[in-house]
Structures are given as structure tokens and as C-alpha cells.
Amino acid sequence: MNPSTANFSPYLLSSVFNPRYHQHLNHLNDMAFTHTKMLQEIIDKRSIDSSSSAPSSPSSSSISPMAATSNDSIQPKKRTHAYLDNNNNEQQQQQQQQQRRQEKDDLIKRSKIKQEEDDDEEDNHLNKRSRKQSKPQQLAEKNQIDDDEQLSSEEEMGEVHSQDEKNNIFPIQQPPILPFSPQSLPFLTYIQDLARTHNITSPASMTRFLENLQKELFSPMHNVGIEVKRLAPSLPPVFSQTVHHHHHPYFSQILYNNSFVNHYTPPPPPPPILPFGNTLSDRSFPFRLSTPKKRRTKVTDTRLSPRITSKIISHEDLMDDDKSSSTHSFDSTTSNHNNNHHHQQSTIEYNAFQITLTSLHLRKAKLMFFYTRYPSSSVLKVYFPDVRFNKLITAQLVKWFSNFREFFYIQIEKYSRQYLAEGIRNIEDLIITTDSDLYRVLNLHYNRSNQIDVPISFRDVVQSTLREFSHAIQQQKDLEPSWKKSIYKIIQRLDDQIPDFFKDEHWMHSI
DNA sequence: CTCGTGCCTG
DNA sequence: CAGGCACGAG
């Protein structure tokens, strides 16, 4: 709106005034949370092993070793992470950290085995319930449920009769979800540490960092899946199920969509630290993405999110497309060890390509908007040849254009009313030039760097749209329920052919 | 019930 | 821009 904002530096715009900056922080927060949780789990597993093999924590509980350890593994979770958890377990934790460095490899194997045991334990309940849980609105809560079940089954595994423990645990299990609650602040610190560890001093290295981070989030899970299968041919379904459930196109999406890179302020020159990344990728359990989210209230909801979620689950194995029944692929791939080979293959293949839309794709899409406001999904597929399309991706792209349109129409309506208010009577007087405010606003939105040849046809479209809106408003059509629909239809016919160079990847990378 | 769309929210 | 949601077609 205000042309003067164009003079602001991108950094100021995005980091200070742009609310998306907060989203970035939240995403990073979540990532940090996940990582911390993973590390914590490793520590926990370690403590389980050490306590069962060596009497290192004798007095902590008189019940049994198992009960003691399961208790340990729960407490840190409640407090969101171990950094804050300097209570009774301090001694034990120090010990654990030392041991962890020394016997990292050993740990992996053991914890994997341990994981299998865990899965065996919770197989029955979890399996049945999650399958039955086809109701979409519950999927959002699935993570929560998983955690709960995880907790309870761990307890059962240790000692079921510890009702007291459960009671103690519950109140803290309901932590606040506020993005910047005191509890989540440490994660910002944590992510900074991560960045420093990865020697991030420039946006370029930041990119690498994010990429590595993503790999660490992805590949280990699959490696785990494979390895475990090797170790235990009779892997219970629930294990893979858990893995699948927490699959993350979404997560990677976050990594890619975030232009955090652009806003990142390099920290002071960091002292070299141990390669931390390996530790991360060493974890050998299916971590849970318990990203706090608003819970659904409606029961009737069957919308995008749940559906997509289920799609993710079913599609990550067969990225390519729909046709196959989701439930089938899900079950067979997860619970059947005869599929070992297949599973590996799909896993590898899955790791091989990008199933994410990058910010580059976004810019490209915006530029395409100059030509077409209503691209069909088939058109999108043609003009994004480097993208591995699945329903998720398609939905996202479609959503992008939907958002583009929204902005487009909102601006035009705004200016339309403005012009009318300024006393314009004759619609023919509404002429859009490249210098028009409206045009500049739109151009700024879809073509920030101004490095594309905006087709003249776009100017025509803007003008036409403006006139349609003005006309409708003038006629007070805007009082009718869905008066914009008819305008939309008209504008939809004005779509142009998209130039072929949009298909060229090289060209795309040049923008 | 699934799926695609549009609105509107954060 | 992405999440959520209501609605309607199939």
C-alpha cells in the first residue's frame, strides 16, 4: 500500500514487521523441540540400559529397575527438555552424558533393541486404536494420543501398579502451547546452539545447515526402519506405523518454505565444536512430532488437514500416485516383513528426491500468476517439471494460486472502491498503466525483485477486473450474497498461455 | 463418505 | 501463505 515501504530493507520488513517472522521462530522452535526430545530419548534409553546392566541407580526406586527408568524417561518430557531438568536426576544425567559420548555406537544397537521391546509392548493397544481412528478430527490429536499411550505403556512395562506416578504425570502433561511461553524459549537458544555447532556464519552455510538438518530428520528414520528389520524380522506393525505416522513432508516443507535464511543474523564467530550432527542422526527411535496445535472442536470435520495427513501416511511409500489403496499400502508395508526389500527401495527412493516446494517454486508460481490466474492442476504439473507431484504438493500449489487470487481481488476491490469514492463515474475512465498504484502494488507482490517481463496482458486483466468490480459496486451488486463469483468467471477467461521458458529449470534458478 | 473449493484467520 | 472450516457435488 504505502510505496515508502518499498524502501525498507528486506530484513526489516520481514523480521520486524512481518508476522511470518514469528512463524519462522515457531517452526524453529518446533524443530528444536523435536531434536531435544530425540536426544532426551537417547539418554533415556541409555539410562535404561545402564540401569539394567549396571546397578547405577539403585535407590531411585524400590520397585524395579524398569519402573525406575521409565520414570526417568517420562520426567524430562514433562518439562519439555532436559536442560531445565536439574532435579534429582542430575547425577544420573551427568553420568549418562559421559557414557553417551563414549559408547555412542553401542548405544545405538542397544536402544534399537530396546525400541523393539517397547513396540512389542504397546503393539496391541496402539495398533487397534490407531486403525480404528479413521475419524479425521482425531488425527490432529493423534500425536497427543500416541504420547499418552507411549507413556502408559512404558509404565505398564515397568510396573503397572504405579497409579501414583500416573497422577503425578498428568498435570504436567498439559503444557501451554503458546509460541513464546517461557518453556519454549530455551529452544530458541537451542537452535542457536545448533546453528553455531554447524558453523553457520553466512546465509550460504545456513542453507547447508537446513539441508543437513532435513536429512537428519529424514534418513535416520528410514535407516532405523531398515536396520530394525534386519535385527528383528518380526518387527511389530506398530513400529513402522509410528514412523509413518510421523512422516514429514510437512516438516521438510517448513524447512524449505522458511526463508529464515534470508533473515538470519550470523552469530559471533563460533568456537569449533564437535560434529554434533552425527549424534542427531544416531538416534534410533521413531520420534514424535508433537507440535502443539489447536485442537479441533468440530466433530464433523473431514477437511483438508486430516485427509492430507492420511494421504501422507499412505503416500510416502508410493510417492507417485494415488490409485493404490491407502490402507493397503499402509498395512502391508508396515506390518509385513516379507516386504523388506520393497520397503528399503521405496525408502531410498523417497530419500532421493525432493518432495518439497521451495521458495524458488513460490517465486515462479507468482510470476506465472501474471499469465494465469486459474491454472489447472495439470497445467501446474507441466510447468513444474522438477517437482514430484503428489496430492500434497498439488494441493499446496493450488492453494498458492488461490492465495494469489485472493490478494489480487482484494487489492482490486479496494482500489475500485477508492476510485469510486474519488468520484469516478465513467467506468471507461478507469485506466491502468504500469505506473498506477494498483499495478505497482500487485507487481510488488508477485514480482518483488522486478526481474521479470510482466506481460502487457496482465495490465489488461487488472484493468478489466478493476472495471468489473467498479461496475458491480456502482450497481450495488456488492450487496448481493456472492456477487464476486460472476466477476471471477469473467476474469477466469482472461488467462493467458504461459511461456515455455517457465518449464526450463535453468531459467527458474536464475530468478 | 470423499474430494474439491472458497472464505476467513493467524 | 498455510490451517481450518463449511459447503456441495458425486
UniProtKB/TrEMBL annotation:
<dbReference type="InterPro" id="IPR037131">
    <property type="entry name" value="Homeo_prospero_dom_sf"/>
</dbReference>
<keyword id="KW-0804">Transcription</keyword>
<feature type="region of interest" description="Disordered">
    <location>
        <begin position="318"/>
        <end position="344"/>
    </location>
</feature>
<dbReference type="GO" id="GO:0000978">
    <property type="term" value="F:RNA polymerase II cis-regulatory region sequence-specific DNA binding"/>
</dbReference>
<feature type="compositionally biased region" description="Low complexity">
    <location>
        <begin position="88"/>
        <end position="99"/>
    </location>
</feature>
<dbReference type="GO" id="GO:0048468">
    <property type="term" value="P:cell development"/>
</dbReference>
<feature type="compositionally biased region" description="Acidic residues">
    <location>
        <begin position="146"/>
        <end position="157"/>
    </location>
</feature>
<feature type="domain" description="Prospero">
    <location>
        <begin position="354"/>
        <end position="511"/>
    </location>
</feature>
<dbReference type="GO" id="GO:0007399">
    <property type="term" value="P:nervous system development"/>
</dbReference>
<dbReference type="InterPro" id="IPR023082">
    <property type="entry name" value="Homeo_prospero_dom"/>
</dbReference>
<dbReference type="GO" id="GO:0000981">
    <property type="term" value="F:DNA-binding transcription factor activity, RNA polymerase II-specific"/>
</dbReference>
<feature type="region of interest" description="Disordered">
    <location>
        <begin position="88"/>
        <end position="163"/>
    </location>
</feature>
<feature type="compositionally biased region" description="Low complexity">
    <location>
        <begin position="49"/>
        <end position="70"/>
    </location>
</feature>
<dbReference type="InterPro" id="IPR009057">
    <property type="entry name" value="Homeodomain-like_sf"/>
</dbReference>
<dbReference type="GO" id="GO:0005634">
    <property type="term" value="C:nucleus"/>
</dbReference>
<feature type="compositionally biased region" description="Basic and acidic residues">
    <location>
        <begin position="100"/>
        <end position="115"/>
    </location>
</feature>
<protein>
    <recommendedName>
        <fullName>Prospero domain-containing protein</fullName>
    </recommendedName>
</protein>
<feature type="compositionally biased region" description="Low complexity">
    <location>
        <begin position="326"/>
        <end position="338"/>
    </location>
</feature>
<keyword id="KW-0371">Homeobox</keyword>
<feature type="region of interest" description="Disordered">
    <location>
        <begin position="47"/>
        <end position="75"/>
    </location>
</feature>
<keyword id="KW-0238">DNA-binding</keyword>
<keyword id="KW-0805">Transcription regulation</keyword>
<dbReference type="Pfam" id="PF05044">
    <property type="entry name" value="HPD"/>
</dbReference>
<dbReference type="InterPro" id="IPR039350">
    <property type="entry name" value="Prospero_homeodomain"/>
</dbReference>
<keyword id="KW-0539">Nucleus</keyword>
